[in-house]
Amino acid sequence: MTIPRIIKGEACLAEGLDWLGRQEPRFAHAAGLTGMPPLRLRDDGFQALLDAIISQQVSVASASAIRARMQAAGYLDEDRLVLASEEELRAAGLSRQKARYAKALAAARLDYPALRAAQTDAVIATLVALPGIGRWTAEIYAMFALGHADVFAPGDLALQESARRLFGLEERPSEKALRQMSLDWAPWRSVAARLLWSYYRVDKGREGIMG
Question: Quick one: which of 68, 132, 69, 130 has its CA closest to 99?
Answer without folding.
Answer: 132
